[in-house]
Amino acid sequence: MPDASEFQTLHEVVKAARANVPDGPWDYLVGAAETETTVLRNRFAIDSLALRPRVLHDVRMIDCTSKFLGQTMRLPVFVAPMGSVQMLDASAGLGLAKGAEQFGVTSFLSSTASPGLEAVAAACKGPKIFQLYVRGDLAWVEDYVRRAIAGGFHAFCITVDTALYGRRERDVIKRFVPIARRAMTGADFQASISWDLVKWFKDKFQLPLILKGIATAEDAITAVEHGVEVIYVSNHGGRQLDQGVGSLDVLPEVLDAVRGKADVIVDGGFMRGTDVLKGIALGAKAVGLGRVCGFGLGAAGEAGVRRVLELMEIEIRTAMGLLGVTRVDQINQRHVRAAPPIRIPNTLKSAFPHLDLNEGRY
Question: Ramachandran region of residue 44, left (φ > 0), alpha (ψ -120 to 50) or beta?
Fold first, then answer.
């Protein structure tokens, strides 16, 4: 693996990841459901906003820190949960958690990422949240919640947009089955969960609850009515429902519906520091980084994840200074406006236009 400290741009991280990661896992990482329209709309939504710079402000001292669920984070971002990351690097979920801990942001651990809850809890003392795919009965879920509490996870996340497993045709065409899917059981439980599960959780546990996969105002309102602390706007990176709406386009209607009664976070196509600031400007409490941290993991393990976050910090700090702000809480809707995208939306190319991954060169 390359020395992660030598990466000077996110382009270089993506290129190194492509060189290291075999075709099957690579397509799993960058691909999405069926026509891949939803994942393209994620990028289209981000690329359809432009930033509005402000000048003649003293920006010598820029503070990129923010708070989320009581935890101070070095950036207003978190490492989003990713399943089957053991295909990208042997450090897998631990590599994501350690990279985030070393840098100073919260990470989510997927229930389908190795080495598992206890191993990550023992090795990582930084802020972390456990994310569960429900594949068992209430006793099964309760076991995970209690283990997460014992392991020091400061919140619990339930993914709610996987009632049926999305058809990811890149994988199907190549007959590639991700690791987590090979051992998947309990699909009926996943298809049967309802708001009753949310009520049960809130009645039984004090641990803050996050619902991941909210993509409409209607579901956001119902979540708030059930006392959910965090609404996680996400379309699963475009991997579930094809022909969906881009996450950044959904964010305003969810924020309007929630009206401050819960924190709102978002993921879906955010690859650059300027992408993050667009999400914050529209009102997100924090922005999730999924694929781009996967690239870091594939490029150089946990050091690659940390380097992705360091490069994100450089980009965010630079953009904040050029926007004329010195704190994250100064960023608002006045810093963005609608603008036509310059490039045809693409999972990678609109964020990393200098890459030619087919040729393996810039």
Answer: alpha
Average confidence (pLDDT) over 237-248: 97
pLDDT tens sequence across 150-186: 999 999 999 999 999 899 998 899 898 877 676 677 8
Instruction: Tell me, yes or no, whether 360 lies in a domain.
Output: no
Q: What is the CATH number of the domain that holds 310?
A: 3.20.20.70
Question: Looking at 11, 236, 335, 354, which residue is catalytic?
Answer: 236
Buried b (16+ CB within 10 A) or exposed e, 293-303: bbbbbbbbbbb
Cβ contact 16:8 at 8 Å: no
Q: How far apart are CA 249 and CA 247, in angstroms?
A: 5
307 in a domain, yes or no?
A: yes
334: domain range?
4-338
Asked if 236 is an active-site residue, the reply is yes
Quick one: pLDDT at residue 185?
Answer: 77
pTM over 0.85: yes
Range list of β-strands (E), 113-185: 128-132, 155-159
